[in-house]
Amino acid sequence: MKIGILALQGGFEAHAGMLARLNQTPFLVKKQKDMEGIHGLILPGGESSTNIKLMDESLQKEIAAFYSKGYPFLATCAGLILLAKNITNSEQFRFGFLDIEVKRNAYGNQRESFSEDIFIEPLGKPDFHCVFIRAPKIEKTSEKVAVLAQIKDNIIFVKENNILAASFHPELTQDTRIHQMFLNMCEEKKMYTL
Ligand code: GLN
Questions:
Q1: Ligand 1 centroid vs 17 CA: distance in angstroms?
Q2: Domains, the chain, with CATH or none
Q3: Does residue 103's CB lie within 6 angstroms of at least one atom of ligand 1?
Q4: Predicted structure pTM score
């Protein structure tokens, strides 16, 4: 299987480490041609506005075509902002594939970063160590979106069709379960696309 990681800016290396731990060779995506033959795409955390500035139009179009063909995405933090339909406090470009409304930096600044062990139902026990770094808040989801985890009243992990999106950073832990869940989605898509 060939898994791509958007590698324009931000935490793409930690995702690459996770894939390596799961015996996958990560493919870094910077340009349109890097998307060739991939079965799934990870959009890392970082700065969503910077990611957009660094993404040329051909790559943007390729990602949209990839989504239209039903390939899976794993989006974390800034990556989730890139996919959201609405961003309440920014006019920046977004792909809009994920029917949620988000607010950038809604938990506070870098110093207000925090982590907490959360029960994530599809993963079961033990709880998942969720790391939040200037995280977005998911303020609304449509009925198309499955809520997979919450912290108090805040939604932090969702799935809509082939998109898995977290407002935290699973790649910054040793816990491979979320990446494994994404790889299973990619495996399934690959099987039905022969
Ligand atoms: N605050 C960043 C943004 O708005 C996201 C932070 C992160 O990815 N850790 O894009």
A1: 20
A2: 3-193 (3.40.50.880)
A3: no
A4: 0.97
